[in-house]
UniProtKB/TrEMBL annotation:
<dbReference type="InterPro" id="IPR037401">
    <property type="entry name" value="SnoaL-like"/>
</dbReference>
<dbReference type="Pfam" id="PF12680">
    <property type="entry name" value="SnoaL_2"/>
</dbReference>
<feature type="domain" description="SnoaL-like">
    <location>
        <begin position="27"/>
        <end position="132"/>
    </location>
</feature>
<dbReference type="InterPro" id="IPR032710">
    <property type="entry name" value="NTF2-like_dom_sf"/>
</dbReference>
<protein>
    <recommendedName>
        <fullName>SnoaL-like domain-containing protein</fullName>
    </recommendedName>
</protein>
Amino acid sequence: MSATAGADASPGDERPLPEDACIAALRRMYGARGQAGADHILPFLTDDFAFVPAGTDRSSLQEDYTGPAGFARFIRRQADWTDDTWWPVLDEMLVGERWVVAVVRVETTRTDGTAGRFRILHRWQRRGGLFAAFRSFVDDQAAYDRFHTATDADSATDSAGQP
């Protein structure tokens, strides 16, 4: 949970970086569930925040989500599809000046009863005290793709009826 402070630090000189508001919000997000969790991080996303979920292009959840509204839309769509059982549990977080890497695990069930269990790496890019981008990488891509490509996923809409 620490990173080398500053580019001029000597080897072995590792000091924890201060916990700023954006990192504190990220920790609160991982400590909550569903939309309530996402609400913690939305004020800390840049207007041009970019998120591309891990996985397959065959799922209707797979697209580029932009800005806080795009991220909130993805969270709603995923929650609707999994009865809000998909929410990552934080195992470890590494904080750097420009990047935050979170190792999470998810145990979830789709609305059709299909269960999934995944370990996922979340990579958050920081810019000016906010998060500018987010990527996720999964430990078992084939299982993740199977979970996300069922007929149920291909017809996923959010609670507002949006595809």
